[in-house]
Specification:
This protein is of the alpha+beta class. It contains two helices and nine strands; from the N terminus they run ββββββββαβα. The protein has a single domain, classed as Alpha-Beta Complex (Inorganic Pyrophosphatase). The radius of gyration is 15 Å and the shape is globular.
Amino acid sequence: MIETPKGSRNKFAYDPDMGAFTLSSVLAEGMVFPYDFGFVPQTKDEDGDATDVLLLMDVPAFPGCVVESRVVGVIQCEQSDDGGKMIRNDRVLAVATESHVHADIKNPRDLNSKMIEELEDFFIAYNKAKGKKFKMLGCKNADTAMKLVKKTRVK
């Protein structure tokens, strides 16, 4: 499910109590989300939120749109919580099933060589603006990503 579309300065978050999307923050001028971001429905990760997804697709979607996709990997990372403690906050990497542009991406090795580096730069800047820290730990294949999704599935 998409929360924040590619190209948006607005960071949206799904509020399950309200059953609606809310505006959670606005990025600094000149900064936008580089890809569609969302979550895997019916999951709960270590940070208490649903398992995060970074979705590659041809054009941006919209908040609330459920996009059938193929899991290709996971970006493993840590970021500080409000108290400064570092916690895991991995992002599943997926490709929209209907994507033409990204159709050949089957695993993280198929990505543009600069993409992961640029994502790391984005997340560092994004977290720094919130007074938090971010550290990328690595990028793993679809098998590792699917284990994360299964582990975080709410029963």
